[in-house]
Amino acid sequence: MREYARFLVRCFRLSFVGDWKYYTWMFFLTCISLIGLNAYCKQFVHGLATTGMTDQVSWGLYIANFTYLVGIAAAAVMLVIPAYIYKNKDLHDVVIFGELLAVAVIIMCLLFVTVDLGRPDRFIHLFERFNFPLSMLTWDVIVLNGYLLLNAHITGYLIYSAYRKREPNKRLFLIPFVLIAIVWAVSIHTVTAFLYSGLGGRPFWNHAIIAPRFIASAFAAGPAFIILTLQVIDRFTNHDVPRGVFHLLRQIVTVAMTINVFLLISEMFTEFYTGTGHSFSTHYLYFGIGEHRALVPWIWTAIVLNTIALILLYLPHKNRGIWILNTACVMLIVGIWIEKGMGLIIPAFVPTPLGEIVEYIPTVNEILVCGGIWAFGLLLYTIMVRITVPVLSGELTADTLHPSELNTVRQHTV
């Protein structure tokens, strides 16, 4: 325990050490986080009236980001499967960065749920009447917090094993938790999908296909985000990411996005060809209803971005440079965010069960809160990566001092 406490203290000190690029990035994220915190304080004082949500549209930008980020967190399993199930040695170190991303993202998910409540003390009602196993909300609470603990445990054990220069006990300690995490990753997005499709009063969500679409889009956007983060790690740190990792992740993104597009076409065919009364929300999303067309530019932007990205991914290998892959990943991240955010949450409330058409437009304060949570999540992820890279490279171990610690020792000696 004493050695572990020393390890935590050294990691904490190391998180404050870096070059000017690191300090600039951290300063920027800290400023955005504080601006978001200030916006949330205003919301806490004045209530959800500071947002664009109304009695008719009770879920907005907060839940849209929550839904999207759950998929990003679940996608970390795309590195775990080839690394430990198929024993891909190139991924053994890289998988830690995917798991760390899952930890940061799940914390962001919980923050988005908290700010959406308006009053955080309402969590008390959830625990007073947990209503398990009938309530899908209680299932969501269990899977999200369980996935956070699993990923925190796995990454913490791997990093501490590298710090002590010991091989992790895979048979008795690591592999069982990894297998549980794989199933749990699929469950967190499946349960989130069931949370929507189980609401009978919202026909827009009443599709059995919504859960497979959630999984497919998650396994496209998540690895795309990981591709970009791994390139940043490879460029700005001394940790070399194997080239084969990007090739594998690109294949995963291509297959998952193809499935996602196919499921989307299948859903659109069912909605528009049958022409039932339940297709009003879908018609509002894609073509608008009368003068109400707030979401039409959003969803068609997403369709264009996703289509172009998929075409870029299918280009012959000799014509595909890393910049083309990066362009496709950025397009997928933005396109799927619109599709699973503004294109999924908002249309279910328009029109209302009473036939009212009340459109939703997020306020500036609402956007600032979202920006603050995103910045805080990136801040956490940056700190965790800053600590992990020296451990994996052997610069920070139980038997050696990191260069920054050597400088501190010299200063005290002088």
- Can you count the helices? 15
Termini distance? 32 Å
Number of domains: 1
Instruction: Give the SSE string.
Output: HHHHHHHHHHHHHHH
Please, what is the CATH homologous superfamily? Formate dehydrogenase/DMSO reductase domain
State the share of residues found in helices, binned by percent.
over 70%
What low-confidence regions span 5 or more consecutive residues with pLDDT below 50? 409-414
Computed over alpha carbons, the radius of gyration is 22 Å
User: Class in CATH?
Assistant: Mainly Alpha
Mean pLDDT: 84
Specify the overall morphology.
globular
How does this structure look, described?
- The protein is mostly helical.
- The protein has a single domain, classed as Formate dehydrogenase/DMSO reductase domain (Formate dehydrogenase/DMSO reductase fold).
- It is built from 15 helices and no strands.
- The protein has helices at residues 2-14, 20-46, 61-74, 77-85, 94-117, 123-128, 136-163, 170-197, 210-236, 243-274, 280-286, 296-313, 322-340, 364-393, 403-413.
- The longest helix is centred in the middle third of the chain and has 32 residues, at 243-274.
- The radius of gyration is 22 Å and the shape is globular.
- Mean pLDDT is 84; it is low at 409-414.
